[in-house]
Structures are given as structure tokens and as C-alpha cells.
Sequence to fold (243 residues):
Amino acid sequence: MSGAAVRHWRAQRISALGLIPLMLWLVESLLAHLGEDRVQIQAWLGQPIPAALAAALIGVTFFHLALGVRVVLEDYVHTPGRLAAALIANRVACWTLALVALAAVATLAFGF
Amino acid sequence: MTPAERPLSPHLQIYRPQLTSVLSITHRGTGLALGVGAIFFVWWLSGAAWSDACFNAAQAFWGSWLGKLFLLGWTFSLFYHLLNGVRHLLWDVGIGFDLRSTYRTGWTVVVCSVLLTVFAFGGGLYAWGSP
Fold:
């Protein structure tokens, strides 16, 4: 497994770089669409560019979150069996949330 | 074989908190808080996509004082983790790694994330109050 730690380190940094513009876009968007009803949000995320940016934000966010939580678990969970279970739970949770969110964006973008 | 019960370093109980260590653990804490925020974001997004009831429940939560308190925490967490993350990325390429710079950039991150939180959250409350 040599190289796995380096890959983790690099993936964390690259996803962090990607999140800088995406998070600024998120803050700007949430402020711009504050208090809107469901129809207005559907109209906003029904446009191709906001939908694409939202999809990118979701993918990179949950990727970066999974990497970060993994490090926290490795630091604080000292029982090998529990650590293994926690690492799997982390991956399953991040994948599930990302896929649900991407399905929601796809629904909004393509109007299924 | 069960691992021996040894004390783990650093010994936080007897360790005097410093700006560097406090900012480090705050980076981790804000990262976890943003993870919780991401779950709420998926809840709201799912509502927008599939369910009036779910969307209205999420909107009602943001409107409550508890929801606003959460939003305030996430706003600060986002700006702090973003700015301190840039500080980490600069360290990774060897910039600002001496003690003096570390303290100066540390305080810059604290002041800027508080200011950005006040502007963004205050502006948001103002816009929400008078659409």
C-alpha cells in the first residue's frame, strides 16, 4: 500500500483548490436566492450552468469531506476493528449523500 | 493482542493552548461542522427536487432562531476553513512557515473570517428581512 498516503495528501490539496471558487460561488448563490420558494429554486437550478456548478460542488465537497473525516477517524479511533468499521461507514455515508444530491440536481436540471 | 494503555501525546491536559494549536483544532472542528452542514444542504436540495413537504420543512428550519444559529455557525466555519485552508496550501509550497509569519497569517485568518461572517450573515439577514 505504499503511496496511498501520498495519494490521500495530494487528493486533499487538489480538492481543496477546487473548492475555493466553488464555495465562493455557493455563498454568492445562497445570498442571491435567499428566501425563494421551491418554484424559484427549481427555475434557478434548471439552468445548465448553475446545475453544472452545483454538481461539481457536490462531487468535490463529498470527496474532500470523506478524506478529511478519514484522517479524524484515524487519529481518534484506536481499536482496529472499530476503525475499520468507521472508515467503511464514512465512505458509505459520503457516497450516499453525494449520489442523492447529484440525483436531486439531475432532477432539477432535466426535469424528470 | 490488545494495545497497551499508554498516554497519547501531545498531553492536552497539561499543554498551554497557543494560537497555532487552537487554530489547528478549529480547522478540524469547522471541517466537521461543514460536513454536518452538507447533510442539511442535501436535505434542502432533495426537497427542491422531489418534495414540497421536505422543502418547506427545510425553509422553515432556516427561518427559526435555531436554524439561523446553525447558519451563522456554518457561515463562520466556511470562511474560516476556506481562509485557513489557503494558509495550509501556502505552507505546503513553503510560504509563511516561520513562526512570525505563522502568527501573522493566523491572526489575519481569524480577523478576516469574522469580518466576512459579519458581512455575509448580516447582509443575508438584511436581504431576507426586506426582499
In short: Residues 23 and 57 of chain A are 8 Å apart (CA to CA). Helices of chain A lie at 4-32, 38-45, 48-76, 80-110. Chain A touches chain B at residues 13, 16-17, 19-20, 23, 27, 30-31, 34-35, 37-38, 41-42, 45, 54, 61-62, 65, 68-69, 72, 78, 97, 100-101, 103-105, 107-108 (CB under 8 Å).
